Task: inverse folding
């Protein structure tokens, strides 16, 4: 790929959204991402599809955007969205005035809510504290961040766009003060290459400043770290929010068969090398228990963290992480810095990624003098599988597997089922915690996959394999074999990948403070040491 | 959400439960206890449609529970799936009746001669089997015209026993039940017989949670009084024993006192062998046995193993001069109560029992003893040998003259 | 003795508990082995690495290690699940990752897998068993051999075994069960492997040769097939681990040990500074086991040592990972040595075990 119109840097949901929007307007673009999709904030958040309730008191504009996008995403990305609804709960002792303002705010902004008495709320969610004051329903949901990002990229690629993962941008080429292209390095081969283009879009989130510096431009992004705790099973049926001024550990989101509690807000120097100190974990747990008391006994599977990229223009440079607006900023570096063909899109949140894409694509059209309007609010990203495919699937897969695969694959479930019909052994379940079949694995690994897989972690993001209690110890091995059998990886590469994958999975679990996950880790460790025998190359003694 | 006893979070996916499951070993399509138990529960809590007919293939043998190093109550998790499973058609109708052996027993015993004729006369047996999806190869047990009644109890005695015979002994082998009463009486017990309410295990096993709860309530109400008055509950069927000790011990508490009352029942239940061996150890069991030279093969029912009381009958029968008795090592006989009666499960049942049948035949015993009524049926069917309840052997050794 | 009275109660059915029970039993004591589920050795390869044990912070003397290992070799041989190897020996055993692990002792079948001394090995996969890829294992083993300057060749071959038409995939567990129960299946297995044996001096299989097989059974199969067989422990549930457990349990039971697996220990019963036994969490009400001495082999996550009284009791000994940490590769060795010592020592009642 030597020449294109637009290069987008950053394969999070924002970059992916821009790619899709541009492709619908007939503009050719290449998206470069240094790791796998959703490596930054996109892949390290709750996956909450906001109703806007969280912002309704302090930032009505942001809230309006949220509810509007919420409804659009439920339409265009239907299979990726788990429309479970949400609740805002008035926990006894919290400020009742805020709750009133909240309810009023929702009315004004247009977020549909219904007031629930304590008993009604407890009936719907038995794990709430028994002494809550009241609660409100709201149209929160859960969205699979990887599938959403993937859907945008795949849909764009099917319209001629290009996506390259594991391709780190090393430089932006300029002819004087005009962008002419980018240089990048393939992290697998180490080879460098370059692409000519007219426009470069910096959609790299927490890395925005580093990328902007390649064009000699400053983009003030502050990295703000949030920690998230994943629990082994769902304790609620819907999203549960604490109805008070946004703070730590006030949201619990069901996320497939696990649930995620978050989050915190700590300024960090950059988006990488993040760790979560034990005190922070204890603090989050303590707060979480106030919202959902049974969290105290629930098994903590994993702790992960990511950096929110907050746009901090000089005027609000002194503000704390949550006070900085969660609105986004589109920076046209031609007008602000005199660099033609370079723009940065920063800030924002998952729920409004499409708007960020729209604003950016609008500006691109303006620059390229193309007169095409945005239609991403109308064109579906993923179609649902038809009733017939779902019925066909029943012959081969358990009900739970069908539902989960459908959410991941949408209409491509037909391909998975078709492959099983031709070769029934592909119905074997490889990851039991997320019910991933061999057929789905092969689809993801196969050449027809528009966004190729390069590591076992990549497989995990596309299928949720390894997201359950064993955290990939059993299924990671099988995924490796699938890659090997599909001629994706040599034996050596496959082994290395498994070791890297399991090391990665180890990190988040090793942070878990108490004994519960320790037993799982101990089992994993035994396997690594014996049946897998990693890390050891034997020295032969020619005796014996 | 009631999780105290289920221990869902303890599961580390080690598959020790799958390794212990007899069904998995003979029927590869069966998803197994890990998938139907803890995995399925996570999906239920996720809100994913997870009903599957496979839950009906779980035998309820509890081997998964015993094998789990982390105390996950696997079989109870699967039972939740059974309770949720929607059945229809003839299988649903069949399972409705299989869930109610007390009702079937009452009806059959009032017309015992006719019932037994129908079940033994080939054409009608075949017709019934095919209509009701009962395994045609099985011969169904005889019903007695004189089932065990409360009147069969004896009032004289220094200690009090409340005999819970269970539906099989009550309706199919009441004479054996009377022998149990006599055994207890001989050893100083006044014996009261419980009213005819099923323990509830067949209902639970067939997914009828409401019927199971109804049995629990009636039994607790009937047994509370005698237990408070110092009676110990005695079961001679190991499945009834497990039901009273295990299932009744962990009812979700609804604030109506039922759970606490049921727990008291559980804490005062003894398996007959368990009770008698305690007497033996205390030197209080009558040991005036006549020599009974017999070679006996012993099979330990799964629900005996899950009670955790060892093999009391091995010790008891070894106290009878002349008896040579060995336990035949096997995982499970395969009958699993009503399970093996079902046409679609018959082959699984027989494949599982194969190890036991072969082991028994290789031992060449005069007879086989086992405490569970349906194990008795299965061993009879699989070996053609005479199968007795160990209490019958002990009774014969006492040479009781009535 | 009464029903629930024993000389020694061993808690935990791992390698340390089993060794302890066997040692105590051999000395003539009446032993009960109680456990909630099997030990972790069932999940792994159950190999033993003794090298460097004295340098590890475990304080076990060479003499003690020798005696314990010697006992363990006798035990496993008598139980029909023999180990090979010794304190001074080192062998390379293959794994399902296609690596070699260097160990001092291993189950007989695995011990045969050392690449030195064989020239042509065939790694045999089973069609429709997805989680064992013969090509992968063969390829990796070849690479490691080359690294070590060995001239072996490994090739991967897949054989087909009988399956019912409704069954689209197989697992090692199911195959193991078929091998136990079904003579014609065994015949088919032999027929599939015989041709491969003609041109090889070792067949490497995933663990499938029966859950209840003894060494003699496996030996017979090898004789008929005409080649040595190395069975690799697979990712759990691993047939080899289960077989080892069943053989050891069977042996202990035959020697008179009462085995009660499936119930947690609620607590240890104390009377003054003596432990009088334990309460098992059985349905209905707990079952009290009375014992003259108690051996805790309950694993590293056991809560039983949280009670000070238990820790100080003169007649409670600990062994295995409940005692403390050592290098992971020494875990099984420490388990066996400390288990043996505990079993021998409890027979001299009143002796306090010197904890590491």
Result:
């Amino acid at each position: 790929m030597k020449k294109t119109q637009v290069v987008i840097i950053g394969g999070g949901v924002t970059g992916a959204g821009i790619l899709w929007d541009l492709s619908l307007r007939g503009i050719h673009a290449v998206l470069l991402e240094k790791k796998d999709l959703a490596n930054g904030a996109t892949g390290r958040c709750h996956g909450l599809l906001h109703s806007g309730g969280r912002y309704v008191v302090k930032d009505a504009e942001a809230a309006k955007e949220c509810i509007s996008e919420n409804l659009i995403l439920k339409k265009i990305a239907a299979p990726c969205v788990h429309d479970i609804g949400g609740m805002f709960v008035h926990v006894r002792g919290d400020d009742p005035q805020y709750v009133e303002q909240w309810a009023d705010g929702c009315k004004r902004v247009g977020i549909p809510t219904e007031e629930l008495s304590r008993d009604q709320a407890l009936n719907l969610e038995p794990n709430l504290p028994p002494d809550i004051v009241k609660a409100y329903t709201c149209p929160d949901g859960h969205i699979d961040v990887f599938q959403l990002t993937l859907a945008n990229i795949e849909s764009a690629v099917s319209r001629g766009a290009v996506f390259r993962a594991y391709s780190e941008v090393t430089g932006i080429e300029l002819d004087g003060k005009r962008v002419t292209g980018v240089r990048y390095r393939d992290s697998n081969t180490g080879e460098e290459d370059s692409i000519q283009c007219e426009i470069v879009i910096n959609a790299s989130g927490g890395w925005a400043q580093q990328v902007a510096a390649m064009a000699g431009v400053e983009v003030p992004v502050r990295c703000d770290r949030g920690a998230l705790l994943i629990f082994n099973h769902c304790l609620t049926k819907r999203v549960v929010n604490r109805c008070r001024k946004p703070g730590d550990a006030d949201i619990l989101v069901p996320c497939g068969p696990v649930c995620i509690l978050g989050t915190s807000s700590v300024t960090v120097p950059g988006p990488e090398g993040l760790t979560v100190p034990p005190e922070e974990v204890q603090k989050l747990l303590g707060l979480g228990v106030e919202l959902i008391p049974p969290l105290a006994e629930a098994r903590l599977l994993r702790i992960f963290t990511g950096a929110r990229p907050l746009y901090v223009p000089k005027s609000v440079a002194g503000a704390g992480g949550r006070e900085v607006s969660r609105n986004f900023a589109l920076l046209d570096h031609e007008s602000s810095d005199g660099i033609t063909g370079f723009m940065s899109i920063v800030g924002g949140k998952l729920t409004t990624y499409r708007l960020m894409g729209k604003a950016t694509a609008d500006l691109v059209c303006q620059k390229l003098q193309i007169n095409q309007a945005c239609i991403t609010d109308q064109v579906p990203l993923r179609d649902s599988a038809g009733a017939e495919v779902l019925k066909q699937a029943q012959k081969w897969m358990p009900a739970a597997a069908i539902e989960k695969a459908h959410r991941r694959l949408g209409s491509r479930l037909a391909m998975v089922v078709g492959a099983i019909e031709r070769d029934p052994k592909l119905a074997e379940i490889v990851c039991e915690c997320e019910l991933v079949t061999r057929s789905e694995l092969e689809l993801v690994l196969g050449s027809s996959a528009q966004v190729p897989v390069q590591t076992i972690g990549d497989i995990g993001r596309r299928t949720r394999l390894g997201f359950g209690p064993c955290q990939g110890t059993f299924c990671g091995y099988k995924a490796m074999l699938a890659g090997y059998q599909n001629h994706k990886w040599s034996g050596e590469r496959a082994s290395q990948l498994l070791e890297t994958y399991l090391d990665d999975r180890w990190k988040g679990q090793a942070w878990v403070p108490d004994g519960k996950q320790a037993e799982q880790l101990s089992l994993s460790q035994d396997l690594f040491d014996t049946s897998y025998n990693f890390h050891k190359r034997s020295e032969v003694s020619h005796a014996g | 959400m009631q999780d105290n006893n289920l221990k869902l979070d303890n599961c580390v996916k080690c598959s020790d439960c799958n390794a212990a499951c007899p069904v998995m070993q003979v029927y590869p399509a069966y998803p197994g206890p890990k998938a139907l138990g803890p995995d399925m529960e996570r999906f239920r809590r996720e809100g994913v449609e997870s009903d599957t007919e496979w839950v009906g293939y779980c035998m309820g043998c509890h081997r998964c529970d015993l094998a789990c190093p982390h105390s996950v109550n696997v079989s109870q998790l699967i039972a939740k799936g059974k309770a949720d499973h929607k059945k229809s058609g003839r299988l649903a109708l069949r399972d409705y009746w299989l869930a109610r052996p007390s009702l079937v027993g009452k009806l059959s015993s009032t017309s015992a001669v006719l019932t037994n004729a129908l079940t033994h006369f080939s054409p009608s047996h075949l017709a019934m089997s095919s209509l009701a999806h009962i395994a045609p190869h099985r011969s169904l047990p005889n019903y007695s015209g004189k089932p065990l009644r409360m009147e069969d109890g004896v009032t004289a005695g220094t200690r009090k026993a409340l005999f819970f015979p269970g539906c099989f002994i009550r309706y199919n082998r009441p004479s054996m039940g009377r022998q149990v009463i006599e055994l207890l009486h001989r050893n100083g017990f006044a014996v009261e017989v419980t009213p005819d309410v099923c323990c509830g295990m067949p209902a639970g096993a067939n997914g009828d949670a409401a019927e199971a709860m109804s049995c629990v309530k009636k039994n607790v109400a009937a047994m509370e009084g005698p237990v408070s008055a110092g009676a110990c509950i005695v079961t001679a069927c190991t499945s009834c024993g497990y039901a009273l000790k295990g299932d009744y011990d962990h009812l979700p508490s609804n604030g109506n006192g039922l759970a606490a009352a049921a727990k008291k029942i559980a804490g005062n239940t003894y398996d007959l062998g368990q009770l008698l061996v305690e007497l033996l150890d205390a030197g209080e069991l009558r040991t005036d046995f006549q020599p009974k030279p017999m070679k006996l093969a012993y099979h330990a029912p799964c629900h005996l193993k899950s009670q955790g009381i060892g093999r009391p009958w091995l010790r008891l029968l070894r106290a009878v001069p002349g008896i040579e008795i060995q336990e035949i090592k096997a995982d499970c006989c395969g009958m699993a109560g009503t399970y093996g009666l079902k046409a679609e499960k018959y082959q699984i049942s027989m494949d599982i029992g194969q190890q036991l049948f072969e082991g028994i035949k290789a031992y060449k015993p005069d007879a086989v003893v086992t405490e569970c009524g349906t194990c008795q049926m299965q061993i009879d069917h699989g070996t053609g040998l005479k199968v007795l309840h160990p209490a019958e052997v002990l009774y014969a050794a006492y040479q009781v003259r009535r | 003795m009464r029903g629930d009275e024993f000389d020694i109660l061993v808690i935990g059915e791992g390698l340390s508990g089993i060794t302890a029970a066997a040692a105590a039993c051999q000395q003539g004591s009446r032993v009960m082995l109680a456990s909630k589920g099997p030990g972790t050795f069932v999940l792994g390869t159950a190999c033993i690495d003794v090298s460097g044990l004295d340098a590890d912070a475990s304080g076990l003397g060479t003499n003690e290690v020798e005696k314990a290992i010697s006992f363990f070799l006798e035990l496993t041989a008598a139980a029909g699940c023999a180990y090979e190897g010794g304190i001074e020996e080192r062998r390379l055993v293959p794994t399902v990752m296609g690596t070699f692990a260097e160990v001092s002792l291993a189950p007989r079948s695995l011990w045969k897998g050392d690449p030195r001394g064989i020239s042509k090995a065939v790694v045999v996969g089973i069609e429709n068993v997805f989680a064992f890829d013969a090509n992968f294992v063969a390829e990796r083993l070849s690479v490691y051999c080359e690294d070590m300057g060995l001239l072996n060749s490994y090739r991967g071959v897949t054989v087909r075994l009988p399956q019912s038409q409704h069954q689209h995939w197989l697992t090692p567990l199911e195959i193991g069960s078929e091998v136990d129960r079904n003579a014609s299946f065994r015949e088919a297995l032999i027929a599939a492997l015989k041709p491969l044996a003609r041109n090889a001096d070792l067949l490497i299989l995933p663990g499938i040769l029966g859950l209840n097989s003894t060494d003699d059974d496996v030996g017979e199969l090898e004789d008929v097939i005409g080649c040595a067989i190395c069975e690799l422990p697979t990712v759990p549930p691993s047939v080899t681990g289960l077989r080892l457990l069943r053989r050891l349990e069977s042996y202990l039971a035959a020697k008179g040990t009462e085995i009660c697996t499936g119930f947690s220990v609620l607590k240890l019963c104390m009377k003054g500074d003596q432990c009088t036994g334990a309460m098992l969490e059985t349905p209905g009400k707990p079952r009290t086991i009375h014992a003259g001495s108690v051996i805790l082999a309950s694993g590293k996550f056991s809560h039983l040592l949280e009670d000070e009284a238990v820790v100080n009791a003169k007649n409670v000994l600990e062994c295995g990972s409940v005692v403390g940490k050592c290098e992971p590769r020494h875990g099984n060795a420490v388990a066996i040595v400390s288990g043996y010592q505990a079993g021998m020592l409890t027979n001299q009642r009143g002796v306090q075990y010197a904890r590491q």
Remarks:
- The radius of gyration of chain A is 23 Å.
- Chain A is about 35% helix and 20% strand.
